[in-house]
Amino acid sequence: MAGKKKTTFAKMNREAKVREKRLASSLRKEQRQRDRAAGVVVEDQVEDLSHLDVEFVEGVIPDSSVNR
Fold first, then answer.
1. How many domains are there within the chain?
2. How far apart are CA 4 and CA 46, in angstroms?
3. pLDDT digits over 10-42, tens only?
4. C-beta of residue 52 within 8 angstroms of C-beta of residue 45
5. Which domain holds residue 26?
6. What is the spatial distance between Cα 60 and Cα 68, in angstroms, rounded to a whole number?
7. Could you tell me the CA-to-CA distances from 8 to 11, 13, 14, 18 in Å, in that order?
8. Alpha carbon separation from 52 to 11, 56, 68 (Å, rounded)
9. How far is CA 21 from the centre of its chain?
10. Is the residue at 29 inside a domain?
């Protein structure tokens, strides 16, 4: 006899999301390793925080080129 299914759809959706996130992360990691092996230099991209409605974001060094 088969027992009653005890896993909810919400839990299955959460688990699927975690699996997708892990897969995406591992793909990015593999791409970085391939780029590094090929000698490709990738510069970090500066995130634009001008859309935030605050003067100061903790842990972020202000860029003097941004005019407010």
1. 1
2. 51
3. 999 999 999 999 999 999 999 989 998 998 776
4. no
5. 9-38
6. 16
7. 5, 9, 10, 16
8. 33, 9, 12
9. 8
10. yes
**Sign of CA pseudo-dihedral 31, 33, 39, 44:** positive
Give one DSSP letter per residue of the chain, joined into a string.
Answer: -PPPP---HHHHHHHHHHHHHHHHHHHHHHHHHHHHHHT---PPPPP--TTSS-S--TT-PPPTT---
18 domain residue, yes or no: yes
22 in a structural domain = yes
pTM: 0.51
Question: Is 53 a member of any domain?
Answer: no
Tokens matching residue 12: 């299955």
Rounded (5°) CA angle 54-57-58: 145
Amino acid occupying residue 9: F
